[in-house]
Fold each of these.
Amino acid sequence: MREPANIKVLLERIRPAYIGLILYPPSPRFIRAELTDYYARLTLPKVGVFVNEPNEAVLKQVEVLALQVVQLHGKETPEQVAALRQSLPREVEIWKVASVGNAVDWKQLEAYVPHSSHLLFDTQVKGYGGSGQQFNWELLQDYPFDMPFIVSGGITEDSAAKLLDLAEGLPQLAGVDINSKFELVPGLKNILALERFTKALNKEYHDRNKS
Ligand SMILES: O=C(O)c1ccccc1N[C@@H]1O[C@H](COP(=O)(O)O)[C@@H](O)[C@H]1O
């Protein structure tokens, strides 16, 4: 997110666990440089979303924006991620994104596990993210690691039941990352849609768990 008025309403009405700051210049959601101090002062945990940035640039933004999480959404190698892990403050998490097409190469992802705190699964597209497209979540049924993961890619208001189906067999599913399907225009979240989604998730969860 990038607009202060929109973020204010989000904090009052939704209180999400994290807020994402897109640090990929070609994105229409790229943060506003003139608001750096404002973003840095936000008390909600901040996820900086990077695409193929050199580690020095990532480290600088972690400091300037006071990020709690670095989301690596490009083709960063396991070696780069290992080096970044060594240089980052201990408390800053790395979420490595895995772009999913028709299959998942678990062996290739294994190399990221020692250096990341979560894997984040998004849909493989021509660009890098924010596509609004879903991949086949059935592929995650084979998730082989203890490390928690996050599901992303085209999540919509209607995804609540499907997300809870997925969570039932996979205790490693730690969260969902919602983006373009909850926007009025790129970079501006539809807070009413977010409220409907969180309500639907809570209702579905309670319906499934009442005795
Ligand atoms: O949102 C963007 O513009 C973006 C650009 C470059 C890399 C990642 C980006 N967003 C991330 O993409 C996923 C999925 O988004 P969507 O729900 O399919 O729109 C999510 O992790 C965003 O943080």
Amino acid sequence: MSGESVTLDLLKRKMEQFAEERDWEKFHSPRNLFLAMVGEVGEVSEIFQWKGEVPKGLPDWKEEEKTHLGEELSDVLLYLIRLSDICGIDLGKAALRKIQLNAIKYPVKGSSYNVSNTSNSS
Ligand SMILES: Nc1ccn([C@H]2C[C@H](O)[C@@H](COP(=O)(O)OP(=O)(O)OP(=O)(O)O)O2)c(=O)n1
């Protein structure tokens, strides 16, 4: 591997090149990419299922299990990046904006974090 730093833009260009070289652009439609991404999320679920809660850093996992997890997480990321690109969304910009929106929605000052503060609790 080269010493170039990994950016969303680099990964985007590599996915574009990967598809071009194989003449796979025709398969990389928004719907196909979305479904492929969800399939890879399922593969991540398979890795965690039946293990119960696992400590941060996965200290008890074998090296090959961690490598496998890294591969499946990468598949999710790569499809997400390609999906965003094909949809004409600048994912880096969109994510930065979303972080700003999150900070406005969940201000730090005067609010001790509480699950009941979040909209995903009912
Ligand atoms: N039409 C395709 C097929 C694959 N890929 C790329 C993106 C993913 O990073 C990876 C997915 O490859 P597989 O479908 O072979 O999935 P896995 O690597 O997870 O293999 P398996 O499902 O056998 O575990 O390859 C792609 O860009 N476009």
Amino acid sequence: MPANATAPPRTDLNEYEDYARLGALLTLQQPRTDAPAELSFLVVTQIMELYFTLLRHEWESARDVLTRPGADVHRAVRTLRRAHGAQDALLASWEALRTLTPAEFDEFRDAFGVASGIQSYQYRHIEFLLGARHPRALAVHEQTPRIHAELAAQAAAPSLYDAALKLLRGRGFAVPEGLAERDPRTEYQGDDRLVAVWRAVYCDQPRHGDLADLGDALFDTAERHVRWKQRHLLSVWRSMGDKPGSAGTSGAQWLERGVHRKYFPDLWTVRDQGWA
Ligand code: HEM
Ligand SMILES: N[C@@H](CC(=O)c1ccccc1NC=O)C(=O)O
């Protein structure tokens, strides 16, 4: 330090702690029991919620980029690819729960009562961005009007795929206006005309390479999400077998119905026949 410099003022906070807001963050890991495995369950839940925050941010940003006139498709694809890294890390987070036995889980399961991941509004928002719009998703939040209202607004906003439909129409593909301007509150079920559009994109990649990249990035996003759901189901089978869930569902059997879902259905259907 130069002789004439004054020493920095003494403070309780170092710069790293300040930037990462550790003062707030590290007060939040408070298990409700003394069960040794509860901290891992709580921390993994919090970590996953943080990744949900990140995915919401990236996917909303990709969607908004795609919706702008003269969309920078490359930028949206880069954003989706960055989010793939977050999805991979989110998936790997299940590893920290891989040894949780039913006996260990039972030691703290009563402590959270009817709390359940089904109430995760960030997860629901993510599903909305992926195009899932099941009315039951909102019904879970009827007792909590603040959450219900926020989710209802998100359920009325376009999904990533809605943005892609608009983009494809803007680029001159035969996307019917009724699809490009559809009401986002209803679930898009897939449409043969869009399957034909994606086939045209994939068949002429020298001309439509950016759109083919977008199709691949969206497919990879969907596939990673399905893998998260599959790992969740395996964790449920491992840690609680086929007992009913804390939210009152049948548990693993209820979750099993959702793990085969094909988000962005046209991108899966176009694979039935493939392309040259
Ligand atoms: C071993 C650990 C876990 C078990 C045994 C478990 C169990 C369950 C069960 C049985 C359900 C069905 C709903 C119910 O009746 O409660 C459920 C739903 C759900 N869980 Fe978990 N869970 C575990 C960990 C996690 C973690 C770490 C997360 C991440 C935040 C999570 C997020 C969710 C979500 C989002 C749902 C709703 C899924 C949907 O609506 O399709 N779960 N969980
Ligand atoms: N549905 C789980 C519990 C559960 O998922 C949960 C409960 C409280 C806090 C976090 C949870 N898990 C994932 O979010 C169960 O039936 O035990």
